[in-house]
Amino acid sequence: MGFFDSEIIQQEAKQLFEDYQALIKLGNNYGKFDRDGKKLFIEQMEAMMDRYRIFMKRFELSEDFMAQMTVEQLKTQLGQFGVTPQQMFDQMHLTLERMKAELEKQV
C-alpha cells in the first residue's frame, strides 16, 4: 500500500490542513484579541507547527516514491525563496517566540 493510500494519512492530512486554515483565518483578528486570547492563539500555533513537523517527518522517513516526491517538491518550492524546510520551521518558531516576547511586554 502506498503512503497516500493510507486512510490514516489521508485523514490526518485533511485535519491538519483544515486546522491550519482555521487558525490562519482566526489569526487575521490577532490584533483584536485580549492577552489571554493571544496567548492561546500562540499555543495553538505552536501545537500546529509540532503536528506539521511530525507529519513532514513521516514523509521524509517513508520509502514510498510519492512521499519522497512530496518532500522534494516542498524543498523545490521553498528553495525558490531561498529557504529549506528546516529554515521554514525555524522561522516559524522564531516568529512565535517574538509574539510571546511581545505579549510579555504587555503585562
UniProtKB/TrEMBL annotation:
InterPro entries: DUF1825. This is DUF1825 domain-containing protein.
